[in-house]
Specification:
The protein has 2 domains: 3-119, Response regulator (Rossmann fold, 3-Layer(aba) Sandwich); 123-224, Arc Repressor Mutant, subunit A (Orthogonal Bundle). It contains 8 helices and 11 strands. The chain has helices spanning 11-23, 34-43, 60-70, 84-93, 105-119, 156-167, 175-183, 190-204; strands at 3-7, 27-31, 48-52, 75-79, 97-100, 130-133, 136-139, 144-147, 150-152, 214-217, 221-224. Helix 1 (11-23) packs across helix 5 (105-119) and helix 2 packs parallel to helix 3 (60-70). The longest helix has 15 residues, at 105-119. The termini are far apart. 32% of the residues are buried.
Length: 228
Amino acid sequence: MASVLVVEDDPVIRAALTEVLSAHGYAIKTAHQGFEALREVTQGPPDIVVLDLGLPDLDGLDVLRMIRGISRVPVLVATARDDDREVIRLLNAGADDYMVKPFSGGQLAARIAAVLRRSAPDANRDREPVLQVADLRIDTLARTVHLADRELSLTRREFDLLAYLAANADQVMSRTRILSEVWQQPYLEDQTVDVHLSSLRRKLGEKASQPRYLHTVRGIGIKLVSAP
């Protein structure tokens, strides 16, 4: 039984989420403050965190960043904020998915199941354990990336995207296909991919105007190039 940490300060919403997720077979822990959530993640890590942003002691975005500093646990953000810039900040901070309130309990349960499938240890069982593309070495089991002798610090989604492109090196992958196979959510905006590509480029030490590995093919998609 997968465990879900619900971080929500509103007791009515917290009780409703606990009830519906329990009915879907999840073991529920709850927290109503950011520091309480961080303590739960540290002491008894759940399988996934459902994180509200409007917390009384800390902004949820700061809580997300702190969680990412100590854990790889998947985080699904539940927010009333639907501004594009806010969504970009969430994705850059390491959110695995987000939902804009209001939403049904069934929708939340389905999203949680999808995130857990993507983050499961055997999700990459058919992938080569180590991918070598020029100076890039990607260990899909240890989930580490080295550029030459330097280890890169990537978020969960950045790693998944880079590993997917490396497994399909020199092939142009459309954004729709990337969203479908990496995010398993083809209905997300293309900008979701672009945000993560931009962050990956910075960490690889390249620019969109002067790419080494990540090349955008206008109107078609993205490919990871194995040779200069």
